[in-house]
Amino acid sequence: MNKTWTLLVNPASTGYNTETIREINELLKVNDYNTFILESKNAGDITKQIQEVNGFSDFTSTIGGDGTLGEAFKGLQKIKQKTVLCPIPSGAANDLIVNYGLDKDPIETVKILLELAEMPPKYVDLVTFNGEAMGYAATAGLGTHIPPNTDSELKKRFGTAGYFIKAGVDTCRDIGAIMVEKTKAVAEKIPGINHSNIIVPEKSQILDPLFNPYTVTYRSNKLNNCILIAITNAKRFASFDVYPDANIGDGKFEVLLVKNPKNIFSMIQLLDTFANGKLGKIKCEEAITFSTDSFKFELSENLPYFDFDVDGDAAKIIYPDDGIVNTHFEAKVAKQVKCLRR
Hints:
Order of helices and strands: EHEHEHEEHHEEEHHHHEEEHEEEEE
Number of helices: 10
Distance between the termini: 27 Å
Low-confidence stretches: none
Number of strands: 16
CATH class of the largest domain: Mainly Beta
């Protein structure tokens, strides 16, 4: 009896292409799989759809970006999993390509998955952040608002580079705003100078953590000058191979707390450590990193201007809809998810 393979497609993903979906479907059929295709129309649809197909679909693929995979994890969080999760990357950054050992070409990824489908499935840890499942990352601080705020057309045209373009534009805008702000402050102190026509441009707040670092309290430790918090179960996130040796199914996740660099040289060392997979391997005073299965922490003093970014999408964790600001957080490994990966 032929097995069933369901495709959960996110048409809003950066790399979405109807011809690619058709080719994937044909490739699965040629390999004797009965196929079903479901498209998401709204946020949260993938979460519901994977629960609906869980009972009859042997394999279920999400076709989208990292956020699409995150929706699938939310769907699997509170049910007894029967279907095997098989992500097919189709986003802008697609960190999951590295995390799951796949290919940037969706068709080549399907060929990989077909081979893996003949073997016993592997597992990946499902990490929850304040009770909600995340696909692979929850981050707050310097630059983390870039993914959810980058224009979709920019991502479709430039892919990952679109994020760096957005970051560059925001940084230049904020530096300009700061210069105008300081110029106005000086002008206000000089008699006879008309400063009323000096308008300070609105900032994107990308540099806010550098001027207003956070205080993070965890495990009896207190870090007063934190500019970035990253909770990840990944080899790669933010398009960097930060933890190339990480095992996404070992029952643990990685925590990264970044201190405000003392000077430009410290910043350069930090960027080099981050971008070249050296975290935890060489001494870097600005980076605190460790693996754990549970992590509780509290934020005080300054709070991030933007809320946490979870799997590339803006979350409502610090600033929920009820208007009550949250300052206590907990991440933990809740269960393991059956999947196809290398």
